[in-house]
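Lecture 7 notes: from sequence to structure.

We start with a single chain of 171 residues. Read the sequence below before looking at the structure.
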Amino acid sequence: MKRIRTAKVKVDPRQPYHSATMFAAEKETEIATEKEPEPLFEKEKANKKFKKGEKYLLKNVLFGFDKANIEKSSYEELNKLAQLLKEKSDKRVELSGHTDDWGPASYNQYLSEKRAQAVANYLSNKGIDKKRMVVKGYGETKPVAPNLLPNGGDNFEGRKKNRRTEIKVID
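Now the structure, written as tokens:
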């Protein structure tokens, strides 16, 4: 995906999956943004639904800049997730890593895969069978917020939302 630094962005909030249109030098590029999933853990309790097809944000799973090492501040959330997966032993999940669009798309893809794998390794070390986890990296392909502001400047809050780890119940 070509990076455009000066762009006007329109977002239609009425759509369940927002659509942002970027214009630059008479060329139009459509960038779809995904609906941001609910956090899995709110107020110390897991979302009770946790059913097939549901996607959740692992809100407090953090990594260092350009790293796939899980920060220690993430352990509490991951320990809660391990406990939930032990309680819901019949569930299989997809762990997905996402990035913003800073840097080459191929590197962002690689980094997102490494981060999702780091989460799977952590959970495996906590007793969750690897066969119950599918690891996917989506790189910059599924943003939940625009990476650029309408004036073409960097959208730091949008980038922050796009750098995330999600879990999806698949069985």
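The mean pLDDT is 83. Keep this in mind for problem set 3.
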